[in-house]
Specification:
Blueprint: H1 2-14, H2 17-66
Length: 71
């Protein structure tokens, strides 16, 4: 595996800039896309918990406001 990475690095650094740039940008896009998936899932899970807590809180407040003591 090290030999393969050394070969890629050696050929990439000796390549002209117009070849290096799209390869590096393409690799960065792939890495960012893969890292974005867990970030979006964490944001969605946090939003779901917040919305559920707000719904529960408003339901409790509605129940408390609707029950009056007529005694």
């Amino acid at each position: 595996m090290t030999a393969l990475l050394d070969w890629i690095t050696q050929h990439l650094t000796s390549a002209p800039l117009w070849i290096q740039s799209p390869i590096v940008i393409g690799g960065a896009l792939i890495v960012c896309a893969l890292l974005a998936i867990p970030v979006v899932r964490v944001i969605d899970a946090t939003d779901n918990r917040i919305m559920r807590a707000r719904a529960t809180r408003s339901a409790v407040a509605a129940d408390a406001g609707g029950k009056e003591d007529n005694g």
